Amino acid sequence: MNFSYELHATDSAARAGTLHTAHGDVPTPTFMAVGTAGTVKAMTADAVRATGANIVLGNTYHLMLRPTAERVARLGGLHKMMDWPQPILTDSGGFQIMSLAKLRKMTEDGVTFQSHTDGSKHFLSPERSMEIQYLLDATITMVLDECTPFPATHEEAAISMRMSTRWAKRSRTAFVAREGYGQFGIVQGGVYEDLRLESAEALRELNFEGYAIGGLAVGEGQAMMFATLDVTTPHLPINKPRYLMGVGTPDDLLGAVARGVDMFDCVMPTRAGRTARAFTSQGVFNLRNARFIDDDKPLDATCTCLGCSRHSRAYLHHLFRCEEILGPMLLTIHNLTYYQSLMQGARAAILAQNFEAYCANTRAGWAAGDD
Known about the structure:
Strand order of the largest sheet: 4-5-6-10-11-12-13-14
CATH superfamily of the largest domain: Queuine tRNA-ribosyltransferase-like
Helix content: 40-55%
CATH class of the largest domain: Alpha Beta
């Protein structure tokens, strides 16, 4: 099985396709549930599959600390360890270079981290990141980059992006090519059009199996994110998958699909599920709100998840008030199911050539609220 992307249909810039990998096919557009440390929080692997997910994400930095990549390899790889034979994409640790800035020292060679768990020091270079992801047996390996923070001056963004480009070349050299496995380059450059185009052009020359857009959803706001996508995605290969990293809200996803993005990941639906926030076809609900105390309706009448099909809003409200762990579990199941159904609906709409109407109807439902 060759790693490849098959484009089935477009509707303006929106795309519907299939990603073919050694661990199975992924219909796109798709949302990847985040399993940072080898688990999607509050979910079994079967529960994640039941949401409609067919690809999940793991994280190089967290797994290299615990239980270590070498131990994962000895235990048969991440697929076996977490009971997920389907595709796994692993983030390279680039986001932690930004988010853990106070705990790291960065040079051209790589990054020395002070562990956020026990203070021990660890070195992560492009070569070491590729080795870790190989040991994890990641279906999709991400190059090591620096996620440029926002705000950043043009000069700061340029220095960061060009180092990420040099690291991408080293990552490409270190990647162990295998049938059905792929490596994605990551376009950086902040919110500056010329830098994004310079990055995209340099990465295209390296002929990656896919291309990610990084350094967004870091504080720049939706309008600026969409403007950056508008100038970036047209310069990425048509026959390769496009992945917007760390995004986002349901509205972010629809807007990015409209701009030619195929793949997404974000902690938002799982984190929201643990804090009583539900994404629904009628907008976002806070299940801690007292208005749900006697509400016997399902959370979302359009959803078939366990929480919606078997329980009432009042029961979910009760679980959170009593701090029962079942509340976060059921709401995480619901949120991930909603995100999957949103992407499945987008795919069907693109294939049917009515994506714009699908987006308008979906947004109208959010605006109407719970009537």
